[in-house]
Amino acid sequence: MKDWALRRRCRRLLRELDIQPPLQVKELCEQLGRQRGRPINLAPFPLPVPGPFGLWIAAADADHIVYQQETSPFHQDHIILHEIGHILAEHRSDDHDEEFWLSMMPDLSPEAVRRALRRSSYDTAHEREAELVATLILEWAAVLNRVSPTRASNAAVQRFQSALGDRRGWL
């Protein structure tokens, strides 16, 4: 996917999900999962170093993102958003050892693990796309967190803020 198309798709998706500042990555995953009709399950795990910081596995009925638990919360958010980038760019889920996945996520059926492992691993272009999505979301969130007023909880006041307020949102 071209960078401009990925940027546009990312902006549209973030507007559709109606995620408001401050960005909560877990909330973004919940909203995205609801929109896609497939929950996104987040699983912190002490991944071996050296090795990947995060992994995405697409099971039949859900997406699972495993991320390094032995790092800062900001880095964890970036890792999760990188994996979301693979989902948004329509890549295939990671290719890793079946026994490793079965030991990490015993709730997944062996067939779900095998199905995910049949997919190919990422190339440099896929990694760049996923990193672009993570970076864009974090950059936009940083700006919006600083400039956006608190959103009112009352729907009528929200409409008023929307009509008369500055046009701020996911660029």
TrEMBL record:
Gene3D superfamilies, A to Z: 1.10.10.2910
Lineage: Bacteria, Bacillati, Actinomycetota, Actinomycetes, Pseudonocardiales
Origin: domain of life: Bacteria
Protein name (record): IrrE N-terminal-like domain-containing protein
